[in-house]
Design a protein that fits this description.
10% strand; 7-stranded parallel sheet; alpha/beta; single chain
Length: 260
């Protein structure tokens, strides 16, 4: 059913919801079906990172079946870092955990956490990879938790739009739990959490100073140790104050005078 101007009121009245981020989507119909699923369950903020299907895309519009408000407001980004810079928490969907030391949660658990984080005023993103290749390791490193959809282990690959539908359906169920329910994860601090942009700035600052003192010794170690530093920093839930303090520490170590 297509929307009319009169229907717009309920769309504008939707409560805060997670952002859906599709990385390098290759099929326009999947983007449209994802947009339709989002609006079915009360989400409207869709971001595309380097869409390989091209944008705008007529097949996506047709497949969205009236969820034009989502497609009309879609944001396009050249990099994953830019698409997530204003967000505080990222949940990445993957069938391959790749031995990363990240929390692994079910879709339902992820959405309970996301609801609490949104109610605290934090930005939350749900991240999905390309149809053929899924998410890259560099994108998974930036996630705060990995979402594992339980599927047949012998045939676990899901269509991109199906994966979006399964996750946002859980969001709809959590929203329906009622305004009185507040499930706050233990690790949520009252302090304002750092955004992904804050973390990226800290990482860039640290890596520049480490290169300046030839910490890496070789290009090969620059890649491996650089990724290790990124994973170490991303694993911890930083607040904005902590990021600012750490950048001050790095700056003083790099430029400060040592007492004799």
């Amino acid at each position: 059913m297509k929307q009319t101007k009169g229907d717009r009121d309920w769309v504008d009245a939707l409560p805060a919801a997670p952002v859906v981020i599709l990385c390098r989507p290759q099929i326009g119909e999947n983007v449209g079906a994802a947009a339709r699923a989002m609006l079915n369950f009360g989400l409207r903020d869709l971001r595309l990172v380097k869409p390989e299907c091209g944008w705008p895309n007529a097949k996506a519009v047709a497949m969205a079946s009236g969820a034009t408000v989502v497609l009309n407001e879609v944001q396009i980004f050249d990099t994953f870092e830019a698409a997530t810079a204003d967000l505080h928490h990222l949940y990445a969907t993957t069938a391959r955990l790749r031995e990363m030391k990240k929390p692994v949660v079910t879709p339902g658990e992820a959405m309970i956490r996301a609801k609490a984080q949104l109610e605290a005023g934090h930005g939350v993103g749900l991240v999905f990879g390309a149809e053929r290749t899924g998410l890259e390791n560099e994108e998974l490193v930036l996630a705060d938790a990995l979402v594992r959809i339980q599927t047949n282990p012998d045939f676990s690959s899901l269509n991109l739009a199906q994966a979006v539908l399964l996750i946002v359906h859980e969001w709809g169920k959590v929203v329906d739990l009622g305004a009185g329910q507040r499930l706050l994860p233990k690790e949520m601090a009252e302090d304002v959490p750092a955004t992904k942009g804050d973390i990226a700035g800290l990482l860039d600052h640290m890596l520049v100073e480490l290169e300046a003192v030839d910490f890496f010794k070789s290009p090969q170690r620059r890649v491996s140790l650089g990724n290790a530093v990124k994973l170490m920093i991303e694993r911890r839930g930083w607040t904005q104050a902590e990021v600012n303090l750490m950048r001050g520490i790095v700056r003083e170590i790099a430029t400060g005078h040592r007492p004799r």
